[in-house]
Specification:
The protein is an alpha/beta fold and 443 residues long. It has 2 domains: 95 residues, Urease, subunit C, domain 1 (Roll); 305 residues, Metal-dependent hydrolases (TIM Barrel). Helices cover 28% and strands 24% of the residues. The chain has an 8-stranded parallel beta sheet. Helix 4 packs across helix 7 and helix 8 packs parallel to helix 11. The longest helix has 18 residues. The chain is globular. The two termini are 37 Å apart.
Length: 443
């Protein structure tokens, strides 16, 4: 008697842990239940992946979806719709909303808001603050929590942990890896006079200079060693930090963003103005080259988009009143697949950065690889498709991307979450079915 599956994906090159193989994949009850020749098996649904590549579902481990508080520029539905259109199957959402996600009640509220509205699976960071620092060991174990996020540089509300005493308190509370925005807030304050009365937006990278990042990261690593705590340093932007972090891989994992790997100053500020303004800043080509060295040397562990939407009206304010942040979750996969096409990145390394590396860093349960028993999450891509990224394609309420007009080779053709086809050929299908991501250390 032949096996029966809910979904069979057939005809594609399937990226299993050892690399791509010609195989079929069967999903049953939301989990991968068979890999191999499934021609004789029965299925409620089939997906023809001929001439396509079946990757593990891509995970965006850094998004800001603005809900609650600033839903005029994004919410959980529109943000995850953009993610799904871009081939993302799971997102980890940041705590700097209004109110900030610093309590069990605020986290539960986000889970409620996402249920029935999220097109992808989801998890939420709990934000560290001086007020909750001693309770983070409890909060980090709550369902749907991907861990603690600490802002050492300027953020919103109470989400700033700038001084060594409070950073150490955060690092002593709990056991899961702490995710960190590493910029030295004291240096930012010292240098704010450079831009406070108005400046060209290219000054953003001068105000938030290399030393601002390096000083913070050195402090973080020293305090992490003293506390015996693992840390994950987000959106590394400098050559100097890559060299420093190379020596601390036993306690520190590293994230880079497509923006820092693709754009460079001064050209990005000349062409895009404040649409290129983000924290930490996009820097010159020397730093971009060093980030690529870090990617290909294995210093970088995973990748997020730091999707941080603002309206065009908000971004058009004179600098520095223009807010920092770029959209990114929908463009992560095509931008990085184009780097694969152009030879800067192997497909194996792309998979590590967008799925299996994220599984390892965050301790995901059942996501990140195409293995029997894992969730049936797949990003199905056409590595030869030639497309142009445009603002019209962007689902974010903000309606723009810094990559508008960029020609790419490599495009997401389908997004499958636990065996459910949520996007196919640039259209989301049916209804949102996102559910909380599970983590080994919180169960």
């Amino acid at each position: 008697m032949s096996e029966t599956f809910d979904l069979i994906i057939h005809g594609g090159a399937v990226f299993v842990p050892g690399g791509p193989v010609e195989a079929d994949v069967g999903v049953r009850g939301g989990r991968i239940a068979g890999i191999g020749d499934l021609k004789s098996a029965k299925a409620e649904a089939r997906f023809d992946a001929s001439h396509l590549t079946v990757l593990p579902g891509c995970i965006d481990e850094q998004v800001h979806f603005r809900e609650p508080g600033n839903t005029h520029k994004e919410d959980l539905e529109s943000g995850t719709r953009g993610a799904a259109l871009g081939g993302i199957t799971s997102v980890f959402e940041m705590p700097n909303t209004d109110p900030s996600t610093t309590t069990a009640q605020a986290l539960a509220d986000k889970v409620t808001r996402a249920t029935g509205r999220s097109w992808t699976d989801f998890a939420f960071y709990v934000g560290a603050s001086p007020e909750n620092a001693d309770n983070l060991g409890v909060l980090e174990k709550l369902p749907a929590c991907c861990g603690v996020k600490m802002f050492m540089g300027s953020s919103t509300g109470t989400l700033l942990v700038a001084d060594d005493e409070n950073v150490a308190r955060v690092l002593r509370s709990g056991t899961r890896r702490v995710t960190v925005h590493s910029e030295d807030n004291m240096r930012l304050d010292e240098r704010a006079h450079m831009v406070k009365d108005g400046a060209d937006v290219a000054m953003h990278a001068e105000w938030r200079d290399v030393e601002t990042a390096v000083r913070s990261t050195k402090r973080l690593l020293r305090l992490a060693r003293e506390a015996g705590r693992r840390v994950h340093v987000l959106h590394i932007s400098t050559a100097e930090e890559i060299d420093i972090l190379r020596q601390h891989k036993d306690i520190a994992t590293v994230e880079v963003l497509p923006q820092h790997l693709t754009l460079a100053a001064p050209e990005c500020y000349e062409r895009l103005g404040s649409l290129a303004q983000m924290n930490p800043p996009i820097r010159d080509a020397r730093h971009r080259a060093a980030l690529w060295d870090g990617v290909n040397a294995g210093i970088v562990d995973c990748m997020g988009s730091d999707h941080a939407p603002h309206t065009l009206e908000e971004k058009a304010r004179p600098y520095p009143r223009s807010p920092s942040g770029l959209t990114g979750t929908q463009t992560l996969v095509p931008v990085m697949l184009n780097h694969v096409h152009e030879g800067r990145l192997t497909l194996q390394r792309f998979v590590e950065l967008t799925s299996s590396g994220t599984e390892r860093v965050f301790g995901l349960k059942g996501k990140g690889q195409i293995i029997e028993g894992y969730d049936g999450d797949f990003t199905i891509v056409d590595l030869r498709a030639e497309r142009t990224i445009t603002n019209d394609w962007i689902a974010s309420k903000s309606g723009w991307t810094a990559f508008d007009g960029m020609k790419v080779t490599g495009w997401p053709k389908a997004t499958i979450v636990r065996g459910n086809i949520v996007m196919r050929d640039d259209e989301v299908l049916d209804t949102p079915i996102g559910a909380p991501v599970r983590f080994i250390e919180s169960e």
